[in-house]
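chain below, 146 aa
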Amino acid sequence: MLTGPDQFFGWIHMLKLKTYGLRILNPGERPPFPIIIERPTIKDVLQNLNFADFGMLVTFSTISLFVARRCVGLYSASEIMRKKRIVGLWTTGSLFGLKFALQNSDYRLRGFQDNGLQWKKKEQTLEKYDFLSDFEQGTIWQYFRK
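prediction:
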């Protein structure tokens, strides 16, 4: 399977519409996968890069090179400007690939992407316990609670 979590085209799963990193979790709600590191540093993110992230970087670089050559080749006045624009667009595409690779690694560490771990319980929210309701019922504060 070429699109597994640690395969070359595994980065395709990051492009799904249900990317969890785009939303803020409510109190008591947990990410879909277990958290490895809650607030990873750059060093942690770089050490967590895998083959799927490398595939993302290579794919974005390759596609951006072909797009840059095609777009700049049509609208360039001189040879020097054409080469500078191709390198600039290719570098921009490669940096986008690097950004998405680092973001995918960060999401795996924070539990928003598949990191190979599973929760023991399938519920998305945690149970909350209320210890004060019984105590409030016998005081004047019960009227302010409503």
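DSSP finds five helices and no strands in the chain. The mean pLDDT is 80.
thats it, cya
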